[in-house]
Design a protein that fits this description.
By secondary structure, this protein is of the alpha/beta class. Helix content is 20%, strand content 16%.
Length: 307
């Protein structure tokens, strides 16, 4: 998610990519459907971009055997026109074939629909609903907060806690499936880099693997959101495709493209980023330029461009 009011320095880039076998994407058959119910208001007003903080110094995960997704999972079409609507649902522009919307919204009829879920952090209006012991806490017992968004990090540091957090997020994933979404987009995979070294990359990959299994059991594909340093571990995590914010701006699109066999959705937030993405990956990846607030048409600052 784009970080507001914070100077951003250098991307993690290829040097930070962890070793691991690069998976080739399988062509899977379809099961997803769409609904025609009126969209609800989304719970989040803007997206987050890849963390530019240094990764945790804790032990890095190792690759493991591939766990193929069920044959009933449908992957998004390659390099198809995409619209990012997590700031509010609206009729997709002509030519759009893939849409991502908040989990509180309804899918767009007839399109490939991705369901946005904030899976690793508690949104401010939902924080009180989480058990106190599932919020990550520092040595003083204070909740560790993503200051840019005021979101408390969830504690996925033990297997028992990961199971409990995954049970709640799993209910949200169930809701996405019931509405007719085709895939789920769990955000903040990179929260461990903001955890003050209380969480590790191993914790993040173990947790996302739980979500992957649950999504696949509900016949949903699942996206890796940002976190380029873990892209090479998609076999271990069971992730099916990638959604990468500003990967052209930070020279990371190639890493995602290699790891996910070009099944990558790119969101840029500047004209220069869009130009760079198109110059390197037009015809290969799904690319869109949106405004930072991911606002709706008619809103001040609304931007959507594909060229």
């Amino acid at each position: 998610m784009p970080v507001r009011g914070v100077s951003r320095v250098g991307g993690l880039g290829t040097a930070a990519v962890l070793s691991g076998a690069v998976a080739t994407a399988a062509v899977l058959t379809s099961c997803g459907t769409s609904t025609t119910s009126a969209p609800e208001q989304p719970s989040r007003a803007a997206p987050k971009s890849p963390s530019r903080a240094a990764p945790s110094k804790s032990a890095t995960p190792s690759a493991s055997a591939s766990r193929p997704a069920p044959a009933t999972v449908r992957l998004p079409p390659l390099h198809a026109d995409f619209d990012y609507q997590i700031g509010g649902a609206y009729p997709p522009p002509a030519g759009v074939r893939i849409v991502s919307r908040d989990r509180t919204a309804a899918p767009a009829p007839g399109l490939y629909n991705i369901c946005y879920v904030n899976a690793f952090q508690a949104q401010p209006d939902e924080r009180a609903s989480w058990p106190a012991d599932l919020l990550l806490r520092d040595a003083d017992g204070e909740a560790v907060v993503d200051e840019d968004w005021g979101e408390a990090l969830l504690d996925i540091g033990t297997a028992a806690k990961r199971e409990r957090v995954a049970a709640r997020v799993g209910r949200w994933i169930d809701g996405c499936a019931a509405k007719g979404f085709d895939a789920v987009e769990p955000d903040n995979y990179d929260s461990y880099t903001r955890s003050r070294h209380l969480l590790t990359a191993n914790d993040a990959t173990a947790f996302i693997a739980l979500l992957s299994r649950h999504a696949h059991a509900r016949h949903l594909a699942i996206a890796q959101k940002n976190t380029v340093e873990l892209a090479g571990l998609r076999k271990r995590t069971g992730l099916d495709f990638a959604i990468a914010e500003e990967c052209a701006e930070y020279d990371e699109c190639g890493e995602y493209a290699r790891a996910f066999a070009d099944r990558v959705i790119v969101i840029e937030y500047s004209d220069s980023g869009l130009r760079k993405a198109r110059s390197g990956f037009a015809g290969r990846l799904s690319i869109v330029r949106r405004d930072l607030d991911v606002s709706t048409p008619g809103s001040t600052g609304y931007v959507r461009k594909v060229r």
